[in-house]
Structure formats: C-alpha cells, structure tokens
Amino acid sequence: MKDAPAPRFTLTLGHLYPDQLNLYGDRGNILTLRRRCELRGIELRVVGLGIGDALAPDEYDMLFIGGGQDKEQAPVAQDLYEIKGIGLWAAIEDDMPVLAVCGGYQLLAHYYRPASGPDMRGLGVFDAWTIHKGAHVPRCIGDVAISWNGSTLVGFENHGGRTYLGTAKPLGKVLKGYGNNAEDHTEGAVYRNAYGTYMHGSLLPKNPHFADFLIALAFKRSYGRTDRAAENLDQSMDQYNGSMPAAHRTKASKRPSKSRSRSQQGIADDPVTFLPPLEDTLEWEAHAALLERMGLYSAAVDALCRYREVGTVLHLPNSSPALK
Amino acid sequence: MSKQKPPRPKQGDVRKRRKNRGTDTIQPVADLQTTSSQHLTKRRRSSIRAGLAVMGGRTAGALSRRLHLGGGTSIAGLVAQRLYPDIVGHLSKQLAHGSILVTGTNGKTTTSGFIAAILSDAGLRVWRNREGSNLMRGVAGALVIRARPNGNLRRAGQAVSIFEVDEAVMPQAVRTIPPRVAVFTNLFRDQLDRYGEVDSVSARWRQAVSLLPGNTALILNADDPATAQLGEFFPGKVMYYGIDDPSLDLAAQGLPAERHQAIDTRTCPHCGGEYIYSLRYYSHLGHYRCSKCQRTRPEADVRAVKVITDGIDRLRMQVETATQQGEIVIPLAGFYNIYNALAAIAASQALGIAWDPIVSGIEQFKPAFGRGERVQIEGRTLRLLLAKNPTGFNEVLRTLFNNGTFRHLLLVLNDNVADGRDISWIWDVDFERIVRHTATLTVAGTRALDLALRLKYTGIEQQDMTIVSSAPLRAAKSVKRSKAHSARQRRRVSTAGAARGTQLIATGEGGVINQAPTRGYGIANALDSAIRGTPVGETLFVVPTYTGLLEIHHELERRGLTPHYWEEKGP
Predict the structure, then answer these.
(1) Residues B108, B219: Cα–Cα separation, whole Å
(2) Chain A CB within 8 Å of residue B500 CB
(3) Sequence-ordered list of residues with C-beta below 8 angstroms from that of B271, at least 6 positions apart, any chain
(4) How many domains would you assign to chain B?
(5) Is the pTM of this model over 0.90?
(6) Domain assignment present for B8
(7) Inter-chain touch A1–B459, beta carbons under 8 Å
(8) What is the mean pLDDT of each run of 10 residues along chain A (324 residues)?
(9) Does one domain contain both B334 and B452?
C-alpha cells in the first residue's frame, strides 16, 4: 500500500489457533488491525499460536482468537485450558487487549456444552457459559447491530450455542439480531481489556472505531500512558521503569527499541499523535449501509454524522472521546 | 453407443415399481399383471393425482413466466409438490435409464453439464434441472415441465435424467429418486448461514450414502478427504477420481500465501488427527494422509496424470482409467474443471459409456450458465465467471491473474438468501493477487461497499475502483441535507489547513456520498460503467455471486443479448 510511513513502533499480535479457528473470515480482523497500524507508523507483527505452543504474555501486545466448528473446538479447548491458560490469564489480568470472536469467546467463558458430547471446559475469563440446545433449536444467524460506547457495532452472527452471562458485563446492547442468547438483548462480554463477541463478518473492517480502540489499548499498555495526567512520567526512563509493574519492566528491558523510541520522540501523550485519524469514509458507509439494511435508519444517520463531524471517534476507557 | 440397459433393480421396497423399466416407453401401469386390484386403484389414483399436480405446476410455471417473475421452473415444481408430494418419485420412476444425482459445493453444474454432453453424444435423451435451482422443487419442476397432463413423462423411453442436488437436500433426494449413479464433487464452506457448519453437511452426506440402493455406482473425489471418506460407508461399487500430477502442487508453484487460504477440512473424521499432505492442489484438495490413524487418500480409478494450461480458456489433460487412456482438451479455464471433467468421465464409465462420446462430449462442451460463457456487447467481450464461495473465488482469480495480464473486472457481491446472507467469506479470498493487475475495477451488488472495503484493505486505492451499490445510502442524503453546520465546520477546518481538514474535504468531495447522484445505482449502471471502462475489442470479466449472475443475465436479456435461459432447448 502506498504512503504508509516507515514504522516507528512495533506491536505484536498473538493469533491463537489460526489453523483451527478460522471459519468466519477472521482474517479480516487481522488485516484491518495490521493496516490501521501500518498507516500510523506502527508495525503489527502477527504470530500464530497453534496447538501445543506456549503463550508467553511478555511477547505479545494484543491477542486474537477466532471461531471454528464444534469438532475443531474440542482439541482447542483442551489446549487452551492446559497449555495456554496460565499465560492467557496473566496477560488478561495485566490488561492486555484480547479480542475473542464466536468460538474463541465461548472458550473464554466457563464452559461450552455442545449438542452432543462432553462439555468443553473454558478458561472462565468471562463469568458466562454457553449451551447448545440441540439441532431442533434454530441457530442464531443473521446481521446484528449493538450499541457500544455511545456508537454502534455491526456484524454478522452465526452460532448454535446460547451464551448466558453471570456477573460478566456485556459488550453492548442488541439493537437488532440475536446477541448472546436471543433472550436478554446482551451481546458479548467484557473483562478488563478482554472482549468476547459473536460478531464476525468481519467485525473490525466495518467498525473502525473498535479497531482503533483495541490498537489504542495495546499501544497505551505497551508504550506508556495515553492521557495527559501521566505526561510527566516520560521525562525519565528510569523513573518510568521504576513505576511500572513487573511485567512491563521486563518487557521494556527486553525491548530496547521501544524504550529508545519512547524517550526520543516523547510520544503518546495524546492518542491523536500516535493514532492520527484515517480516511474512513468507505468504512463508515459500509457500517451505515448495514445499519440501514437492518432498518436502523437513525443509527445509520448518527454514524455518518459522527464521522462527518469528528472522524472516527477514538474511545478510550476513562476518557472522553479523544478527538473532540 | 449402444443403448445402455439399466441393471435390473432388486425387488426392493422402494424400487419395486421400477422393475419393468426397459428401453421402450414404459407406463407405470405396465406391470399390472403382477399386482392386485387394490394396487390397481391405488396406482390409478396416484396417476390422477400426478396428472393434477403436473397441470397445476405447469400452469403456475406458465403464469410466472408470463408475468416475468422468473423462469417458472421452480414454481412449477413447488406447486406440483404441494398438490402431490411424491410427484418426483412418481415421474422419475418412468425414466428408462434412471437418474444421476450430482452434489457437492463447487462444480455441480459443470459436472452435470459434462455428463449431459457425454450422454447425449452417446445417443441418450438427457434431462436436467439446468436452470440452477437445485433444491427438490427445482428437480420436481424439471420433471413436471416434461410431463403430460395424464401424469406420464413425455418420451421417457430414451431418457436419463441428471439432477444437480443441493448439498443439504441430498438425503431427501436419494430417498425420492434412487439414483443409478451418485456423484459427490467436493465439500467446502459455502453459505454457512444456511447449512450451519461444514460438518453438518458431512453428516447429511453419510446419511444419504447409507440410503443409496446397493446397485448404485458411487463416484467420489479421491483428493477431497471429505468426499473420499464416504466410500467407507458404502458396500456397493465406488469409483474414485483424482489428479496425479505433482507439478500442480501449490508448494511447487511457490505460492506461500495460500497457507492462509480457506481450508475447510483439516482433520480425519475417524480419529481427529490432522491431515498431512504430500501434494496439495488447492484448499484441502490433494494427496493426504492422516497423521494419527494413517488412513490415506484412496487410489483414483480415473486420474489426470498430466495437466497443461492451454491459454486462458483451455486445459489439456492426460487421463488414465482402468480401460482407457488418452488426451482430453477441456474447453474451460479453471483448475476445478479438471475435477469436474474427471467426475463426468467416472460417472460415464460407471454407466458403461464408450470412450469416444466421453472425449467428444467434454471437448465440445459449451460453458454452463455463468461458468465462463461469453457474450459480445458493444464491441467488447463479456465473460461471466460465477464465484459464490472463497474457494471458487480463489480459483477464478487464480485463472484470471496467473500470468501478469491486466484485466478489466466487474465484481458483484450480493447477500440474498440464495447467495448466503453471510459475506464474511470475502475476507478469506486472496484478493492480494489482483492488486496492481486490474486495468479497470468495478464493484457492485447489494454489499458493494463491503467488497470495496475488502479491496481497500488488500491495498487497492479507493480511487482505483468504481463502486456502484445496488441502492443509495439513504442516511447519506439526510446527513447532507440536515447538516448545514457541518458544511460550516468543513469550511472552517479547510482554512485551518490541518491534516484533518483535508481529510474532511476529501470526505466531502471525493467520497461516494457526494458522487452518488451522478453515478447511479443498480446492476445496469454497474454494467454500463464497467463496459465504458473497457476499450473496444477487449474482454470484461464479470465475477458475480449467484443472484448477481441472475441479475446480470436478466440485464443482458433485457438488452437482447442472451437467450432466456429457461427457454434453452435441451439436447
């Protein structure tokens, strides 16, 4: 692609089970993250983590798990629990952004009970569980739109299992479609920076604000603060390293390039400086077109207006939309 | 070829009434001597019902055609089935040479086209559900429009029917029409929204195979583990076809990008072990063996040992079977057509057809509906290449972009029910191949914006493609109308001259939103725009999904360019 600036930063995305959980065009999510990083001078390295590979949380800035078929999900569930579980838990408790779609989402909850066969034990990151009620219960299939952070997310869902949330916070409220279980109008689940959702289609290309949100989370976590309150921290590397949690410290020391770029350029006090807005007309038109096809006309107008006025809004937790 | 006498069916329950089949015209009443008088009345009653169903169906079909609602074949079948649910069974029993069922994700139409060409070269009268409706109602319709009002088929004596059957309705089809030959081409992900998952199709196929009469010949693709494994569930005659040409291996061609390609069957159904490939042609097709239980690809009975691509629209292959070998030229492009031709050869050999009609049938084959057919329009050549799932799409792109030639391309992405409502599969298509290789690129359909977005993330600039949605974005209009202040804001930022300002200007001037009124919408405009972009004498390649293809056909018909496909005369 032309005019992508030379990369100044590096983020590493761990793609869990790319060979087993790849059913629903999840490549689109990876392509979107990579390109949106690239245009901001961030190189996104994608590392595939297959069955049997260990997950060392220090080596990644972001994780992605896609969806697969029931048959392929069983060995994955076992591997996730027995081999990657500890690393994944550590990463999530350390606020690493994780996006889990469909099958991946189900495996991050307590368990998945298939229509036939034994339960698959999940990691229990989300306090939720999934039950497939058998072939006679129709699958949840169709376009879906949810409200999220004052805007909308659109996608396509196709799942046999119904997910019920315990104490887990949902990702959003269903505006149209089935969501977690077609009953309580919730969609997805959130724990710290881990996001589980049934939306594919692919999710991120048509929801550039969510893609940027995940990138910002990863960038903030790995390269320091994104809010002005932490600005002073940048002045001394030693002081900064001293204030970081252990995991961050090892990371910084393991990656001299990151520390260097941080001290040289004094970045990341404002998300706009490291995630400048992109030309997203096509993204938002696709987003609005899908809303319109679902009959959510005013939501479509809202989405286009918002883009017209402020571009792709960068949501960050505990901060107002950054581009206001 | 000499008339192939069908093997005498067993005196089984389902096929009982077929036992008097012969090469002469048969009436269902012909074997009355052996049946009781109750049976007679029952038979008569069913005959009357069938007659009613035929008349009802044909009336509905004629009406629908007259009202330009469509080809009228499906509706004829639907109505006839409503009037007499067993109409398919009733009519298909009268076929002297029985039926051939073809199913699979890709290649059903072309495979049955090859078989039809071969059989008609062999002197048989071939009936097909050629209009592409491959649900049971399409099968019913194909029979009903050839039936007399008395419930009998016209000229059933020489007839053999070839039905392409939707993957999901295969068990139902096998139950209603016990076939002489059943062909399973391949299994890929397709319309996940309709079928659920690939595995559930697999389960239905196993059920279908268990329902096959023992004298059916089962034709399976040896290179696709998902179809080849079906042979283990069938005690009767199984013939495998496959490719034995190591030079076609993906690794040998140096295409590392294909690793990411949609691979839909990875694990052995018996033990869950991953397949290991010594040769991989595309997706999960190749020479495989299970890493755990060591099950391997079956030896192919009909095999292509050497394949040479001969220009854009011909393939030359060296074929070996148990009894014959020789070169056959396939007048179609696309690697998958090798499999389609091999499947047809295997099916024909299972029916005892001689070699000559096999060769001539394939070599003189005319492309089926949307499978590479050619239309001349305003001095340009239009070629229609249906692509309805990631594997099919990848193969089309591989054919078009394998030698660095720049192509004029019109892509049509629809998400109607017949296409599959889910379009996430476009992200699994290797569009990277076409970057900087398109002379012009037009994107159309109900989900044109999604496809444009896919291409954008592949690295194609938005200004290098023309986007013609099927309908305007209504929201964009009211954004323009109601937002006077946003115009003010735009002026303000533009004077500020910041990077953000230029971006907003770009949105205002260059985006689809403002160009919309001049560009137009719908398939006719898309076609016009793409044709205008193609210089006279050059070829425009149209790659639509299924309903996109129907729309293109309809539009071409409106311009008087193709025959109405449902009026096409059978061979």
Answers:
(1) 13
(2) yes
(3) B290, B292, B293
(4) 2
(5) no
(6) no
(7) yes
(8) 69 91 83 92 92 91 88 84 93 95 93 86 93 86 93 92 94 95 94 94 92 91 57 37 41 41 45 78 94 93 89 65 36
(9) no
